[in-house]
Specification:
alpha/beta; 5-stranded parallel beta sheet; 3-stranded parallel beta sheet; 8 strands; about 20% strand
Length: about 250
């Protein structure tokens, strides 16, 4: 199994323990190292670097940080991405989050910084990992304008948009929230296994009430997709693993 989107860095001191636990069950984890509040990309990078080879890093700038419009910080993260461009498998997560953007000024900041990092990804010839919340259609339109290959992680938009995204050659993230979020379930229902990646978004979106999510729980997303599509677990596991390897160019 491959977890296509997790955040080991958010476990802080417990990260090594959780990583070793997940090594026993997973082939790989794509960790979306993203600039967000006090979680700086350079600190996260140093924490996770000893585990590269099992962890495959992306680098990005979270939209909830982007709403602040701090271009000095943007430049620092951009420079860091250039420094590690040959070690990352995508730019992200980047995107739009209108749930937390309180006004049009913050949304404008998000849009400008989102496009800035998409342009960087195009220049680096890398795919992008998209965070879109209450702005899925707009994020998709921006991606289409720039012609970049995208993964819409933890998708919770309409099933119609999920189909449009997939039909345009992008992948849609089905996370462990499939057990309790109707929108995630509906997206999984209308998509084929070849059009999705499975993820946990750990430590968030736990399928087990009262427990923090872990990348090894990606099994739950695979199980639920298999049930919805009337397929064997092993078939969905094989297809989604292949999707992750091809999209991110993983050497596993």
């Amino acid at each position: 199994m491959i977890d296509a989107h997790a955040h080991f860095e958010f476990y802080k001191k417990e990260a090594p323990q959780v990583i070793e636990e997940c090594r026993k069950e997973l082939k790989a984890v794509v960790d979306s190292i993203t600039e967000y509040r006090k979680t700086h990309v350079w600190k996260s990078w140093e924490l996770l670097k000893p585990y590269f080879g099992f962890i495959f890093p992306t680098l990005g700038y979270h939209p909830n940080e982007a709403r602040r419009g701090n271009w000095e910080k943007v430049k620092k993260v951009e420079d860091f991405i250039w420094e590690h461009k040959d070690e990352i498998v995508a730019v992200g997560e980047i995107g739009l989050d209108y749930h937390y953007a309180e006004n049009e000024e913050q949304r404008k900041n998000q849009r400008a910084i989102f496009e800035h990092f998409i342009e960087l990804a195009v220049e680096l010839k890398l795919p992008v990992v998209i965070h879109a919340r209450e702005a899925e259609k707009e994020a998709f339109e921006i991606v289409q304008r720039h012609g970049v290959k995208a993964y819409f992680h933890s998708f919770a938009g309409s099933p119609e948009l999920a189909r449009e995204i997939a039909e345009n050659g992008h992948l849609v993230g089905i996370n462990t929230g499939i057990t309790f979020i109707p929108e995630v379930r509906e997206a999984a229902r209308v998509l084929e296994p070849e059009e999705i990646l499975v993820e946990t978004d750990s430590p968030y979106m736990s399928p087990f009430k009262g427990q923090r999510n872990k990348p090894c729980y990606v099994r739950v997303a695979i199980e639920e997709v298999a049930k919805l599509k009337g397929l064997e677990f092993e078939e969905v596991e094989r297809i989604t693993e292949k999707n992750a390897v091809e999209f991110f160019g993983l050497e596993v």
